[in-house]
What does this fold into?
Amino acid sequence: MTVPGRRSSTFIRLLRSGFTDPSAATRLLDADALAAVRTDPVLLDALGATADPDLALLGLVRLAEAQPADQLPVLLDTLVSAKPLRDRLLGVLGASEALADHLARHPRDWQALVTYEAADLHPGLAEFEQGLADAHDPVALRVAYRRCLLSIAARDVCGTTDVAQAAAELADLATATLRAALRIAAAAAPEDARQCRLAVIAMGKCGGNELNYVSDVDVIFVGEAANGTDEGKGVQAATRLASHLMRICSETTVEGTIWPVDANLRPEGRNGPLVRTLSSHLAYYQRWAKTWEFQALLKARAVAGDEALGAEYIAAITPLVWQAAERENFVADVQKMRRRVVDNIPAAQIDRELKLGPGGLRDVEFAVQLLQLVHGRSDATLRSGTTLDALHALAAGGYVGRADTAQLNDAYRFLRSMEHRIQLYRLRRTHLVPEDEADLRRLGRSLGLRTEPVAELNKAWRRHASAVRRLHEKLFYRPLLDAVAQLAPGETRLSPRAAGQRLEALGYADPASALRHLEALASGVSRKAAIQRTLLPVMLGWFADSADPDAGLLNFRKVSDALGKTPWYLRLLRDEGAAAENLARVLSAGRLAPDLLMRAPEAVALLGDAGGLEPRTHEALEQEVLAAVGRAESGEAAVTAARGVRRRELFRTTAADIIASYGTEDSPAEEDPGALVDRVGAAVSDLTAATVAGALRAAVRDQWGETLPTRFAVIGVGRFGGHELGYGSDADVLFVHEPREGVDEQEAAKAAQTVIAEMRRLLQLPTADPPLLIDADLRPEGRSGPLVRTLSSYAAYYRRWSLTWESQALLRAEPVAGDDDLGRRFIELIDPLRYPVEGLGEDAVREIRRLKARMESERMPRGADPTLHTKLGRGGLSDVEWTVQLIQMRHAWAEPGLRTTRTRQALAAAHAAGLIPTEEAQVLDEAWVLATRVRNAVMLVRGRAGDTFPADARELAAVGRYLGYPEGRVGEMLDDYRRITRRARAVVDELFYGA
It folds into this structure.
């Protein structure tokens, strides 16, 4: 007896076995039909191993209840004693509701899964023909067909066959079915059968030996009159047989339907005669056929009817197929067809479309077929109708890179496996990924994803679809394909019209300008133009992967114009695999990085160096800057050199950030956004500190030589002191000095004031390099107070006048330049203020909360959306930082880990000390990282700082791409930002305001 309120051991075991409704499963296990096996542990384990244990158990109960009395013990005994049968039967029941229905209607058909011989593991056409041999009417044919389908599905879901083998078996079963249907049709009309010769040509996936579980079977019929029969009467008889064959397979009976037979790929489509003679076919193809018809004929295979006539047809059309690439506008025709397919997908379905959507199965098939038609005319090894076989033949012949082949192979297999399992569930023709959680769970589990099936499935699907789309664009839209397809003696050139169509399809808003750039880059017979012609097809694909392909191509032309005569530039892009792709990513991701590069194009060399994008240490940066300052003849020249180093290093940082955010073909995008934020913050902060140190050295040297009359230190505060500077951040600082021995205090103060003024002037001189603004507004008394104080003056002020906000500002104070000892002593002075013993009093806490509330109401820009403002908005940077800083001021005196200037480190320390629960800490960290990345993205994209998302659609899309959102997902990005920051604000209300 189960104790009230306690779950039974069976209930818990069912949960652990993967059942989602243990209560219903318990009732099913109690069914009389399963009495003999309900407690068998092997059965529960086997059910738990299926894609959907609940579905498998329901199907088993239905099957058991449908058994005749004498057969039920046989089923149950075999089920528990024979593992192959158990795995096959339960595997099918857990994956296919439709096949469970079939077994319930035909309870003896489970025995088709008992045999486990070699021929049964990999049956061929002969075995399927034997399985259908006793079917003499449409109803019997359907039952026999499903019995054969049951065995294919069993091998598929158990992993005995892979997806390619399963697709080939399905094509063989379709061939056997067409033959059986023709046999039945001929038996029903023997006179028609005597008057004609009829050949059935399989097209599409059936012709390519790669059929789905549920698919139209595409065919073409070829007919001839039999000896002594008038041609017209012979063709009419063949038409009647062909029509009957189609009805036998397609019509709905008490046993449902098999699949539609579609003859619309025939000459003239629906408007043309159903059956033509061979000569009529050839006359049409030679005179009227369009490019897509030859592409379709690539998969033609004679499968049923008159073997000799089928062979004649294949022999006659084969040369026409492999001459198709010589037709005018061949590549453009293929592109147009591809675009038409995508354009016809309903907008609401495009993200779920597995076959026809971007990055779908059709992308792979189109890319492979295009390359086959272009190169197959001179290389017979490429003439396979099976996509994966053709892909590997292309790789073996060097037409496709091996890395591209491996990615396409893996992606195609995964997407086909998804398609198979989706269709198998209800045996319905669909290519849409389901939206229901239970359907996605079953689908993920059927593909071996058991830990988090839905999340793992979505992640793998998006990854493979993304890989397919990138590879597809590189192959399918490659402008050089047009030249290859229209070879003429001594001439290889891009067709402007075809190239313009490709550029438009890739997302170029101004294809005419893009073509002019291409012509400027690739025209001529120079070595430079030849290398560009090799690079451009690949570069165009990479530009197309960005939010602004036009800008990428324009910037590439500018860099190439600047460096084209430099011998190493094109060699770098051609020979260093990563350099070209890295450059493409950087040039098309926004304005900031290209602007930095244009001022010193030689920095492109960083993109080809394995360690070129690694951030340099603070010590190395400061050493280089001070050395450059030391070599300069004047203060202006010195800081110009220092700012030149800063520009180059900013480019290094932006390039590394963009490449890590976008990912490349060889290295995926960085999965940890926090790591990206930390890397940028540390690199920009170190670079700013080195630049300030250089400016300080230059300002001192010009007027005083090597020694200033007063010791002088620059203290970084705010994001600068926290190592959290973004691309658009000013440098927030405090200045402190201490007169040297024997120097008058007024003279020392004047010297310090002069140095500060000179530093600011030098760092803001109008030059080609970005200025560095120094902001000292966080000093005591703010803008009303003196710009620089002595250490003793700071001590006196903090002892007597210091306000709570000033102590809070000091939480991120850290020396960044100048006299090391003075900087260290300043930190010793302020530590008791920012980490007060026993923590903040309640009055101080209330004061901080009041200040924060006032800031929220007064400082938000008019008209700004508070849900999207990264700094002052709900759950934004200010919310998170003030929450963390309040915890530091209350507890850092007792928790050494909280004594850090860095927000994320302080947050982690607060969590480690038990001051913030795990989930709340993660929520705050995620929001802070996201808001910081948005600010960095806005600066990268627009070239100027901003705290909100851009209004311009293309700029907004570029921000989305940087944050990892594919094209067309801008709305999802904004929704995610609002959701993440809303959760953060709830935590802030609790932890900061005590709500």
Remarks:
- The first strand starts at residue 196 and ends at 202.
